[in-house]
Task: inverse folding
C-alpha cells in the first residue's frame, strides 16, 4: 500500500540534520506497517499529479496557520475534497488536522486559551492516550458529519473522525521528547510563555502512546471502503 506524505512545513534548520524532516519522521512512525511511501513538499508548491497517485494520504504539521494567505493552501484544500469524494483515506496531524477540517467546512482559530506544548493526555472514548503537542490554533467548529473522538480540557476537538474518509489528531505522535526539547529552544522562547515551556520540559521524560496512534492510522489506511 502506497502512502503519500504531504509536507506542509519545514522543521527548524537547526534540528533537521539531527531528526530529519517531517516526511522522514512519519516514515519512522509508520515503519513496520508494510507501507511504501512517497513525499511531496506542498509547502514549496510540489503537489502530486493526481489524488490517485497513492492509496492514502497523510498531511503533516506546519508552523503556518491554515487561515494564512499562502498560494499552496487553496490547492491543498481542493486536494483534500477530491480525496474525500474519491474515498481515498486521509490522515491529518496538527496543521493536517486543521486543514482537513477547514477544507470540509469547519472552523480553525487561534485559541485564546494559549498554547499546548509537550506531553498532553487525551480521552479517546474512555481510554487515556498521551502524545506530544505543539499548537495554539485549534479546530473550534467541526465540519458537517465529523465527530470528535478525543478531547481534553484544553482541546475539545483533539481528534476527529470523518466516517471512513479521514482521521485526524491535533497532537504530534511523530515528535520525540528530544525533538520537542529542540523546538522549545529554537521556536519556543520568546513566543510561548516560559511557564508553559518549563512545564513541558518537566514532563519530557514521561512516556507517550505514539505507537498506539501509529497503529490506529495504519488500520484506518487499510480499512476496506467502497469506491
Result:
Amino acid at each position: 500500500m502506497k502512502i503519500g506524505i504531504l509536507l506542509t512545513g519545514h522543521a527548524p534548520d537547526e534540528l533537521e540534520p539531527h531528526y530529519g524532516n517531517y516526511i522522514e519522521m512519519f516514515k519512522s512512525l509508520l515503519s513496520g506497517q508494510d507501507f511504501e511511501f512517497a513525499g511531496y513538499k506542498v509547502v514549496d508548491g510540489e503537489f502530486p499529479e493526481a489524488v490517485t497517485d497513492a492509496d492514502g494520504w497523510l498531511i503533516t504539521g506546519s508552523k503556518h496557520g491554515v487561515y494564512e494567505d499562502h498560494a499552496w493552501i487553496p490547492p491543498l484544500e481542493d486536494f483534500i475534497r477530491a480525496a474525500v469524494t474519491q474515498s481515498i483515506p486521509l490522515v491529518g496531524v496538527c496543521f493536517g488536522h486543521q486543514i482537513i477540517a477547514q477544507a470540509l467546512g469547519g472552523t480553525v482559530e487561534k485559541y485564546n486559551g494559549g498554547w499546548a506544548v509537550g506531553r498532553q493526555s487525551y480521552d479517546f472514548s474512555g481510554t487515556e492516550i498521551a502524545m506530544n503537542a505543539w499548537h495554539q490554533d485549534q479546530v473550534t467548529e467541526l465540519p458537517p458529519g465529523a465527530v470528535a473522538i478525543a478531547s481534553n480540557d484544553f482541546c475539545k476537538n483533539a481528534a476527529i473522525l470523518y466516517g471512513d474518509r479521514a482521521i485526524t489528531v491535533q497532537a504530534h505522535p511523530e515528535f520525540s521528547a528530544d525533538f520537542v526539547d529542540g523546538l522549545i529552544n529554537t521556536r519556543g522562547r520568546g513566543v510561548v510563555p516560559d511557564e508553559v515551556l518549563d512545564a513541558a520540559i518537566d514532563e519530557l521524560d514521561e512516556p507517550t502512546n505514539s505507537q498506539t496512534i501509529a497503529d490506529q492510522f495504519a488500520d484506518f489506511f487499510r480499512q476496506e471502503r467502497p469506491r
Residues 108 and 139 are 4 Å apart (CA to CA). The radius of gyration is 16 Å.
